[in-house]
Amino acid sequence: MSRTKIDKAVPRWGTVCGLLLTGLFLAGCRAGTAHYSAVPGGASLAPATPQASAGAPAAAARLPSSDLLRVGDSLTITFLDLPGTVPPFERTIKEDGSITLLLNQPFQAAGKTIGELEKEIREHYVPKYYKYLTVTVRPLGQYYSVKGEVRSPNRYPYLNDTTVLKAIASAGDFTDFARKRKVKLYRTNGRIETEDCVKALRNPRLDLPVYPGDWINVSRRTLPWQK
Question: Which of 85, 92, 180, 206 gives a 20 to 30 Å CA spacing to 197?
Answer without folding.
Answer: 92
